[in-house]
Amino acid sequence: MGNGAYDAAYGQSLTDPEGFWGEAAKAIDWVTPPQRVLDADRPPFYRWFTGGTLNTCYNALDRHVAAGRGDQAALHYDSPVTDTKQTITYAALLDRVATFAGALASLGVTKGDRVVIYMPMVPEAVIAMLACARLGAVHSVVFGGFAPAELAARIEDAKPTVIVAASCGVEPTRVVEYKPLLDAALDRSSHKPESVIVLQRPQARAAVGERDTDWEEMDWDELVSDAEPADCVAVAATDPLYVLYTSGTTGRPKGIVRDNGGHAVALRWSMGNIYGIEPGDTWFTASDVGWVVGHSYIVYAPLLAGATSVLYEGKPVGTPDASAFWRVIAAYGVKAMFTAPTAYRAIKRDDPDGALMRAHDLSSLETVFLAGERLDPDTYAWATERLGVPVVDNWWQTETGWPIAANLRGLQPMPIKPGSPTVPTPGFDVRILGERGEELPAGEEGAICIKLPLPPGTLPTLWGDDDRYVSGYLSAFDGYYLTGDGGLVDEDGYLYVMGRTDDVLNVAGHRLSTGSIEAALAGHPAVAECAVIGVNDELKGQVPRALVVVKAGIDGAADGERIRAELKQRVRDEVGAIASLQRVDIVTALPKTRSGKILRKTMREIADGKTPNVPGTIEDASVLETLAPVLKAPA
């Protein structure tokens, strides 16, 4: 198949990375242009754009205002949980960010200092992030409502000068007070910030400064009212912009570092070339700023591109119903949206016929992008059929910050193959390696690895821990970054990601990916969502076990026996007799992180009789409590 524009870009990105990324860097305003595009002096610690200085906030805000885009909307804040809507122009956002940066500076925050941000999906979270970038400070956003132990571990590791928090988060059925959680975290932490700033929300105001503390506490409004706006501080391209801790870590948390220069160049390039979003377009990413997708594609990439970003404080269903996304798309003239497949599965479960779409004008919508969990073919087919637009999978990680593999809708749209995120993105030299590090031929499943150097925008290291970066990601195969996912590349060069390598089952010596079994289950008309885990078995080593959520309107109790039998047969037909699915449980919900990832490892540990390490990012711990007796029950 002819992929002229893609082949040319991908080829140049691997054979002449300096030329490719040097050209991409022209879309960013530099204070001092880089002296070198790729600095390979100290492998495996490659650096991008050394010698260059810039300011990320200037590139996201000031330059657009200077170019005459000040009256364009930068953010549409839409909050069904608080019944609030607000549109903030580039000029107004710049004013608010410069003022808050001044407030942070008045508390002693300077270049290189860390600021922990513990907030829900409100404009002030974006303002705080950009204000840190303006000062050259390093932000570390922690999901609002994160448990005290997890928050304390991040405070210990990042050692922030200031913490910026909100008084509460608002969920569809409850208000979560953040301040008691933050106080408990600060009690546990040996590091105490110099100041804590609290955004008071009317749904639950926080009692501030009622107890003896050795840190100062102040109200957001009171602080900002006296602040002098701050100018942008030039930082080195290789200086950190933020640290983002990965979920589900044990012991010391893993802080993914993102630099300023490579990040700005890669995200600006991705917005037009991957997502087809140009200056002035409206873009809706339904995620959370506490997750990498929120950092990259709610905040930085759309603003670097001069687009309009929708900041949505709500859920795909339940705020108020499964039409929420369609309302937002119609209200703001959204050109493309990005969310996790789990969000679309929730909509499909509640409104299988897509009846709620019909009340909304979705004519502005050109593309839907999904990432974060494997996009099963059934969800892909449902969304494609109902919406009538391309539904595009893209695959990446917190560590990479932007897609490793995608269908590049701006550069050169390609035919979509269900189950594949399409092809490696320029800059990512993706290889499938066998157990001895040998490159495997097309069609053969192995470890998905990326040949070094990684492109701009990816992690240069872990926060304060170069050794752990090397041992955790670069030591399995010399000269390669280990993604931790298994998969294959087909004869057309399309990548298939079959799941985490620890989700590969070894059934009587046969290696099976949970992804292939889940794909077979998901194709059943009754299945809304499913997860497959491998549990220990004396005879076969491991056997697959399925947990299935059925669609709304289907009686799992009355029809359960028939559905289970049909699902077992589907797996036998599509994956093979060796997969022999002995057990299918129909359950009401699957445990997930707040970013939509199903907690397969946690379920596997419970099923094997272990005490699991439950990640702090779990969305609803009660789901796990309900499932525990099912998982522990003997086969």
TrEMBL record:
Record's Gene Ontology CC terms?
A: intracellular organelle lumen
List, alphabetically, the CDD domains matched: PrpE
Q: Which residues does the UniProt record annotate as the domain AMP-dependent synthetase/ligase?
A: 64-452
List, in alphabetical order, the Gene Ontology terms for molecular function in this entry: propionate-CoA ligase activity
Q: AMP-binding enzyme C-terminal domain location, by residue?
A: 517-597
In terms of Pfam families, this protein maps to: ACAS_N, AMP-binding, AMP-binding_C
Query: Which residue range or ranges hold the Acetyl-coenzyme A synthetase N-terminal domain?
Result: 6-60
> What's this protein's family per the entry?
Belongs to the ATP-dependent AMP-binding enzyme family.
Q: Which PANTHER family match?
A: ACYL-COA SYNTHETASE, ACYL-COA SYNTHETASE SHORT-CHAIN FAMILY MEMBER 3, MITOCHONDRIAL
Write the protein's name. Answer: Propionyl-CoA synthetase
